[in-house]
Amino acid sequence: MPQCFLLDGAPCPDGRGALPLDDTALTLGMAVFETLRTYGRRPFGVDTHLARLGASARFCDIAWTDAIAGSIRSELATVAAAIPSESKLNVLLTGGGHRIVKAEDLDLSRAGAPVRVATRPWAPSPWLPGRVKHTSRMAWVLAARQAGVDEVIWVAPDGVWTEANRSNVFVVRGGVFCTPPDDGRILQGVTRDAMLAAALGIGVPVCEDPLPAGPCEELYLCSTLKELAPVVEIDGYPGPGGGPVGAAVLAEFRRRARVMAGA
Ligand SMILES: Cc1ncc(COP(=O)(O)O)c(C=O)c1O
Question: Which is higher by pLDDT, 201 or 123?
């Protein structure tokens, strides 16, 4: 599978490079990151991803300057150009101030593919708000693994769904396309915002209100790589899956992504 890695701007053949062994990314799990993808082989939403990465880095006291942002921008273009098809792109900034930019073949089959979830309790931390896209996710990974599902939907102490391991959550209730608000408990997904804009663009009513658990007509996880993925199983029971509202929004989202990419 074609891959291309840069460490602090330098090529890393075979994906190998040297990081100091006392980098806090290794010793404490302190790192922030972004996952992007290309449409028409052009990275999608670079400005939004860089703004979020900068905010995450500043929150965690990880080095962030205009020069670093500029380097990442050109490195993303370099690694994407090295992959002959659509690519998945990653940027990771370590606590020690190092930068990894990576591209690999994009697995197109994940976009819109059905997912299985479980719900589990989670109290968001004021010391590490949901807006920060950090790598310290071991508890979340283990929760999903132990539940035997693709992702867990987190239930806050007030009983509302917040987000999932690597995704935002959308439901359709009464024909309205709803997702939880950006209230510090979720990552404000780049895809989430683009999906809301696509829905409004085709006249689908949207809401960003707290999302009580309960019945809905359609249920989705939403992210860069999944786009809008129907939930077909929840807590061991059949999920509502997808339907006409999500299908229309996803088609409009993809149309817009291709236009933005000039494809
Ligand atoms: C916790 C969490 N929420 C939401 C998302 C979706 O974000 P995006 O649409 O920017 O990929 C992600 C993506 O990795 C995530 O990790």
Answer: 201
Residue 138 backbone dihedrals phi, psi, to 5 degrees: -60, -40
Residue nearest to atom 5 of ligand 1 (CA): 167
Count the Cβ atoms, other than its own, within 10 Å of residue 129.
15
* Residue 262 reports pLDDT greater than 80: no
Query: 3-106 has which CATH code?
Result: 3.30.470.10
Report whether residue 168 contacts ligand 1, using a CB cutoff of 6 Å: yes
* Residue to mutate (ligand 1; options 187, 226, 228; most atoms within 8 A of CB): 187
What residues have CB less than 8 Å from 46, skipping those under 6 apart? 36, 73, 76
Is 192's C-beta closer than 6 angstroms to any atom of ligand 1?
yes
What pTM, to 2 d.p., does this model score? 0.96
Q: How much is the mean pLDDT over the chain?
A: 96
- Residue 57, both tokens: 């880095």
CATH of 110-261, one of 3.10.310.10, 3.20.10.10, 3.40.50.800, 3.40.50.2000: 3.20.10.10
224 lines ligand 1 (CB under 6 A): yes
